[in-house]
Amino acid sequence: MAGFLTTTGAVLLNGLALLGMAFILSRGFPWLRTWPGRQRTLLLSVAFSAMTIGSMMLSFPMGEGFIGDLRNVVIAVAAIVGGPVAALVAAAAAAVYRVSLGGQSATAVFGIAVVTGLAIGFARTNLARTPRNLAVLGVVAAIANAILLPLAAVFFSTTTLDQSARIGATFFSYTVLIYPIGIVVIGGLLKGEQRRADDEADLKTRNSSLSLHAARDQGVFQSSSVAMGWVDLESGRFIEANPQYARFTGYSEAELLTMRFDELAAPEDREKDFATIKPLQTGELVSLTDEKRYLRKDGSVVWALRGRRGRRERRPALRLRDAAGRHRAQAGARGNRSSRLARVPDWPFQPAGVPYRARRRDGQPAAG
User: Fold this and answer.
1) Which 3 state secondary structure label does DSSP give 237?
2) How far is it, in rounded angstroms, from Cα 233 to Cα 227?
3) Are 107 and 78 in contact (CB under 8 A)?
4) 58: burial class by Cβ within 10 Å (0-12, 13-18, 19+)?
5) Which of 29, 123, 146, 353 has its CA 20 to 30 A from that of 117?
6) E-strand spans in the chain?
7) 108 CB contacts (<8 Å, ≥6 apart)?
């Protein structure tokens, strides 16, 4: 009983030491993520080699003249987290250290090779790294060692078959629990932290890309010679307006942000004007082009071709083009000068050519 308690305490100490080393390694994953692939693999290989040797330095008795450790757990985790190269490097470090200790090292090296092969085989499959699959890997490694190690002991040493059978039974009684638990806990911890570090790095990359696109879009928005404005489709209020839009309406950008877009319509057109955004609100249409009479701050009325896009488009909600010239020509042809059409000085837009155009979400023109 005392021997069992001593061994159990030694196993727990070894496991806690590995957990501590794994935790320290997991804190370095964000830093490792910044290194190129080969260098990152090399650094992981060194880390797992250190963990392997650390576990072997805290070995525990498993029977008369027979000691154990958690090196095979570390090698399996190295294959899962760091890949085949990390597992091979950790296995090589374990083998070299075991040979340096002397004794029946050939049998121990054979056991290391068996677990390394199983772990690399598992890592190269498409099996999910779920706790159940990791536990199965641990059980298979325990069974393989329990069967093959006694046979290797008979072949490489003077151990009898009866002694080898007892060694195998003792080995299996410990490893059938230690291996699955160790691989699930340590492997799950490191794999989860590695995935989190990768997700955070990808998120930073995406945010940087979005920020760059936003900066570019904002630069185009502010410097464009086209009058543009962002409008909240729910309330109709301006979110942003560029200098050309302010120039067209006669209102300052600050004044526009306190207004709704239909307040810029002629009084008799306002109710109809606000109703035109309903198809954009519902998603029935993604874009809409029509002509509108704009009431400027000085009281003058000017026609403009207005292009609008809904919430699914990454473009300004409103775009304006001067249509006063065409309407002036039409009014002159009819001999009707009653409509007051203000012309914006040096307005850079071409006359409107289409009175109304709408596009559905599938890209086809809307009916009517």
Assistant:
1) strand
2) 18
3) no
4) middle
5) 29
6) 60-63, 66-68, 227-231, 238-241, 285-295, 301-309, 318-322, 356-360
7) 95, 98
Torsion sign across C-alpha atoms 92, 96, 97, 101: positive
Q: What is the pTM of this model?
A: 0.58
Q: Are 63 and 159 in contact (CB under 8 A)?
A: no
Write the DSSP assignment of 288-318 as a string of letters.
EEEEEEEE-TTS-EEEEEEEEE-TTSSS-SE
H or E element that contains 355: none
- Continuous segment of H or E residues that includes residue 181: helix 161-182
Question: Coil, helix or strand for 172?
Answer: helix
Q: What is the CA radius of gyration of the chain?
A: 37
> Considering only CA atoms, which of 139, 141, 182, 148 is closest in space to residue 168?
148
Q: Which tokens hold the place of 179?
A: 């291996």
**What's the N-to-C CA distance of the chain in angstroms?**
91
Please state whether 20 falls in left (phi above 0), alpha (psi between -120 and 50) or beta. alpha
Q: What structural domains and CATH numbers belong to the chain?
A: 2-204 (1.10.1760.20), 223-360 (3.30.450.20)
Three-state DSSP state, 54: helix
How far apart, in whole angstroms, are the C-alpha atoms of residue 85 and residue 122?
A: 14
Of residues 94 and 153, which shows the higher confidence score? 94
Q: Which of 319, 364, 74, 330 is nearest to 221 (CA)?
A: 319
Q: Provide the pLDDT for residue 94.
A: 94
